[in-house]
Amino acid sequence: MKLFRFTKRPNAEKSEINRISAVLRARGFGDALAAAAEAHHTTIEETLSRTRCPCAVRARWALWGIMHEAGLSSTEIGKLTNRDHTTILASFGRRS
């Protein structure tokens, strides 16, 4: 099954994705980010974007789970990935 994916993103969104990626790599989550994206058949860019594509959402949830298991709070994860902490908490109950 081939999913429709947007390839063009506004420059502001691209720069935000690059910033988040750099912060995660600096904090030691670069490998986890790449592994989550690969395991869910998506790209790192889609994983960090605002897309609601199911594969990207599941990769995002997996990444947040890894970060939580590493000892980060939902608030810290939210700040690092530019999401509200309640979004992070909601994902923990939905992962399968």
Structure characterization notes:
With 96 residues, this protein is mainly alpha-helical. It has a single domain, classed as DnaA protein, C-terminal DNA-binding domain (Chromosomal Replication Initiator Protein Dnaa, Chain: A, Orthogonal Bundle). 68% of the residues lie in helices and 0% in strands. It contains six helices and no strands. It has helices at residues 11-26, 30-39, 44-48, 54-69, 74-81, 85-94. α2 packs antiparallel against α4. The radius of gyration is 13 Å and the shape is globular. The model has no long low-confidence stretch (mean pLDDT 90).
Low-pLDDT windows of residues: none
How much of the sequence lies in strands comes to: under 5%
- Given the helix and strand composition, which structural class is it? mainly alpha
Question: Can you give the helix content as a percent range?
Answer: 55-70%
**Text of the CATH class:** Mainly Alpha
Tag the structure with descriptive keywords.
96 residues; Chromosomal Replication Initiator Protein Dnaa, Chain: A
